[in-house]
Structure prediction request, 113 residues.
Amino acid sequence: MKDFITIRIYFEYGQKVKDHSFWKKLYSSDFSTELMKRAKAFGMHQVLHLNVIKGYLDNQKMNWGMNEIRHYKHPHLIEIIDTEEKINQFLEEQKNLLQTTSILMVKNEVVIK
Prediction:
């Protein structure tokens, strides 16, 4: 079995995809969908967009995601699981897209009962 690690990518709901033309920005996917499409095309083992109910990033005020319309600074989270080597390759390839996000690597532990 491969040794998988997990990274979590934190970003704001209103995060924009940089370096797109006006028309591409107008009709393209949101940041999370764009990141997930790129991860899928890269062949990452597993990618999840986790629904954040409430929270804050970088000492912002608390954001509540209970409404249908979320504040543009509402926190979002994408979790990617794969080998450390493959994740590092993906992060290097996507560094322009990810430059305004916060990335955290989580140590994986398996507990068998």
Q: What stands out?
A: Residues 8 and 79 are 4 Å apart (CA to CA). Residues 31-42 form the longest helix (12 residues). The chain has a mean pLDDT of 82.
